């Protein structure tokens, strides 16, 4: 057996040969068109909206089941349950932990999980830890979903995202609700990239469509538009009690500190005013309208802040991203294996704080260089 260090070197060398090597990049001097801070709340000082214990305690000191439980945690969870029109809410330390802890404990080997093929890695890994049989269906393909549900055994759980992080497109949730009903299945929706973006108060896509009473459970993360950290699972009181007893990533993790919970509460109250989300919608509309017809056809259709232009090949995608960064725009290439080979792309994230001039300059540059990039790729 090879020594570990040699094995690691070989794996890294292979990734470099594929032009897929990842490294940490800091672009503080560039205009942000890559972060998930859609409403700019991560950059905004908060004001007190909930009472904190005095003196302040900066650490939670333990899990919620031991020393990490607090009055602030209860208050924020009750607020979030009401905001998202659910019976109950349970906060996790991250969206990844929420998805892992939720999906790994819900099923038995007699049950079936059916999931969209483009769901996030955290959802996939939660499903892998579950004892249930699991099958994917083609992205947003209602016919394929129906066919998979017809063959499913035991209790049936369908797992989707409302807005997909690498495409920016939306799931056809209303139709999925009807299909799940007809097959006796429950629907789980990850609202990570819809929270703060859709709805008059940023409540997410499920509530915007009026489906909150027909979707069994939802996950809202705080690390995107909320500009903080953590996540909340909203659903029934029975589900909350079950997760407290059986979700390992909740039971065995140190709780979020009250100071961060207070920040989350403030961010929700700021988001609920709707001012930032309306400004974000205007920026999205401006960006889409400013793209030339020839350039727009290379974008994945999306009404979300995530606008993706397909640039096949890791080398080509990295080169185009570098060109935009040289012009002052922080835009990153999404490479295979993160996305399938041949579907590499630039992922452009729009924000309420991006100015009209910044978006105009970006779209003018893209209208100029993307046709040139295509010609070079053909040659």
Brief rundown of the structure:
With 379 residues, the chain is α/β, with parallel strands linked by helices. It is built from 14 helices and 12 strands.
Write up what this structure looks like.
The chain has a 7-stranded mixed beta sheet, with helices on both faces. It folds into 2 domains: 26-42 and 274-378, Aspartate Aminotransferase, domain 1 (Alpha-Beta Complex), CATH 3.90.1150; 71-271, Aspartate Aminotransferase, domain 2 (3-Layer(aba) Sandwich). Helix 2 (71-83) runs parallel beside helix 10, helix 5 (142-151) packs parallel to helix 6 (173-182) and helix 11 (275-290) packs parallel to helix 14 (356-378). It has helices spanning 4-17, 71-83, 95-103, 121-129, 142-151, 173-182, 205-208, 237-246, 248-251, 258-271, 275-290, 293-296, 314-326, 356-378; strands at residues 31-32, 88-92, 112-116, 133-137, 156-161, 185-190, 217-221, 231-235, 306-310, 329-330, 332-334, 345-349. The N and C termini lie far apart (45 Å). It is α/β, with parallel strands linked by helices. It contains 14 helices and 12 strands. Strand 5, helix 6 (173-182) and strand 6 (185-190) form a beta-alpha-beta unit.
């Amino acid at each position: 057996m090879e020594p570990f260090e040699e094995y690691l070197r070989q794996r890294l060398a292979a990734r470099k040969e594929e032009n897929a090597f990842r490294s940490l990049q800091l672009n503080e001097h560039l205009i942000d068109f890559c972060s998930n801070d859609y409403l700019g709340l991560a950059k905004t000082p908060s004001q007190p909206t909930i009472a904190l214990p005095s003196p302040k305690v900066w650490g939670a000191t333990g899990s919620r089941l031991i020393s990490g439980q607090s009055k602030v945690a209860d208050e924020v969870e009750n607020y979030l349950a009401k905001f998202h029109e659910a019976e109950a809410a349970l906060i996790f330390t991250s969206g990844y932990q929420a998805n892992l802890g939720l999906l790994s404990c819900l099923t038995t080997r007699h049950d079936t999980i059916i999931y969209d093929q483009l769901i996030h890695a955290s959802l996939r890994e939660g499903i892998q830890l579950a004892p249930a049989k699991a099958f994917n269906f083609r992205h947003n393909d209602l016919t394929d979903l129906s066919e998979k549900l017809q063959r499913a055994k035991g209790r049936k759980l369908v797992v989707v995202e409302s807005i997909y992080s690498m495409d920016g497109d939306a799931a056809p949730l209303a139709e999925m609700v009807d299909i799940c009903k007809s097959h006796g299945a429950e629907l789980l929706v990850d609202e990570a990239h819809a929270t703060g973006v859709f709805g008059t108060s940023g409540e997410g896509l499920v509530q915007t469509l009026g489906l909150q009473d027909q979707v069994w459970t939802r996950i809202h993360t705080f690390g995107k538009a909320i500009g903080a950290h953590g996540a909340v699972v909203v659903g029934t009181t029975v589900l909350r009690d079950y997760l407290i007893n059986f979700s390992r990533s909740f039971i065995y993790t140190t709780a979020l500190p009250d100071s961060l919970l207070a920040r989350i509460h403030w961010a929700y109250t700021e988001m609920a005013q709707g001012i930032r989300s309306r400004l974000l919608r205007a920026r999205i509309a401006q960006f889409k309208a400013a793209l030339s017809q020839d350039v727009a056809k290379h974008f994945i259709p999306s009404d979300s802040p995530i606008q993706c232009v397909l640039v096949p090949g890791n080398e080509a995608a990295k080169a185009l991203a570098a060109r935009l960064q040289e012009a002052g725009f922080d835009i990153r290439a999404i490479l295979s294996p993160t996305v399938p080979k041949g579907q590499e792309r630039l992922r452009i994230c729009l924000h309420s704080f991006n100015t009209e001039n910044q978006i105009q300059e970006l779209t003018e540059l893209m209208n100029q260089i993307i046709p040139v990039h295509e010609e070079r790729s053909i040659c």
